[in-house]
Amino acid sequence: MGQAQKLMEKGRVGVKPARTISKVGIIGAGQMGSGIAHVVALSGYTVAMNDLKKESFDKGIEAVHKNMARQIAKGIIKEEDRDTALERISFAPSFEDFGECDLVIEAATEDEALKHKIFAALCPHLKPTAMLASNTSSISITRLASTTDRPEDFIGMHFMNPVPVMELVELIRGIATGDETFSTARHFVESLGKTTAVSEDFPAFIVNRILLPMINEAVYTLYEGVGTVDAIDKAMRLGAHHPMGPLELADFIGLDTCLSVMQVLYEGLSDSKYRPCPLLVKYVEAGWLGRKTKRGFYDYRGEKPVPTR
Ligand SMILES: NC(=O)c1ccc[n+]([C@@H]2O[C@H](COP(=O)([O-])OP(=O)(O)OC[C@H]3O[C@@H](n4cnc5c(N)ncnc54)[C@H](O)[C@@H]3O)[C@@H](O)[C@H]2O)c1
């Protein structure tokens, strides 16, 4: 039996009953935080969502609205479902508003120092039984957990983008994550209609350990002049049957997030094969972060995306 399978069994057998979750706190109302709020509220949980500014929360709710409208048009949900779900989501301007939460999911910017600061400020406001999860794409769950007052109650809960559409959530146990926490997290994720895959706590876990080096290689291919943005994306869409080209996907993920993941892989595994492409660094330094800033490998300011190289 593989290590991951053993971990899954560990979550199933001989654990205390899963804790009840009814109120969920979310930190960060960006594309992931708002996507998580979307599925969590639709599944009947009450949601308190925090961000630095009320405008970010409003933007997040706007995205939830838009994505739910798509689901209504496709007959996946009804208008009443949207209305009740939206009523369940409220703005939490301060961590004091998380006192009643049974689970808090951190989905703020991919920056380890920032995440440590968030957990340090958050923990004093939590009830003793509250569980913590991070949606980090790459950062060590063991390290994040170790700076909190509850490493046994801490887990990696890695949702995929766009959250309402993607089936998978990776669950990552830190070295201290308790069986009950794992089992509660697994039940919670399944209650959202998602499937879990268990990953050991290594840099970038499973999906991004494989996906991000491919994206980084696509940026090198562009950097070295092997192909244009258009040629690289077309080649992978039509030649490898990928639903999106790697540069298009990088813009969708956010180039800052892509760079952070590559840095975590490079530093965490000390292997030069993970060196972030200098062109990726340059785009991030320019503030060209992809769709969210309207410019990345494509320019999204016009009617249709135009390659920037
Ligand atoms: N983008 C993806 O495809 C993807 C997929 C899976 C996981 N993730 C992970 O999810 C997390 C968020 O990524 P995203 O794509 O939503 O980024 P984003 O840039 O869209 O949103 C990040 C949000 O965090 C907020 N924030 C920053 N500092 C904060 C603080 N101190 N307190 C509260 N809010 C704060 C920002 O204002 C912003 O609204 C990251 O850890 C990322 O690695 C991203």
Automatic annotation (TrEMBL):
Binding site for NAD(+): G28, A29, G30, Q31, M32, G33, D51, E110, K115, S137, N161, K292
Ranges for domain 3-hydroxyacyl-CoA dehydrogenase C-terminal: 205-300
Annotated 3-hydroxyacyl-CoA dehydrogenase NAD binding domain residues: 23-201
Site positions for Important for catalytic activity: H158
Gene3D superfamilies from the UniProt entry: N-(1-d-carboxylethyl)-l-norvaline Dehydrogenase, domain 2 (1.10.1040.10), NAD(P)-binding Rossmann-like Domain (3.40.50.720)
GO BP term, pick one: fatty acid metabolic process
Protein's UniProt name: 3-hydroxybutyryl-CoA dehydrogenase
Lineage summary: Bacteria, Pseudomonadati, Pseudomonadota, Alphaproteobacteria, Hyphomicrobiales
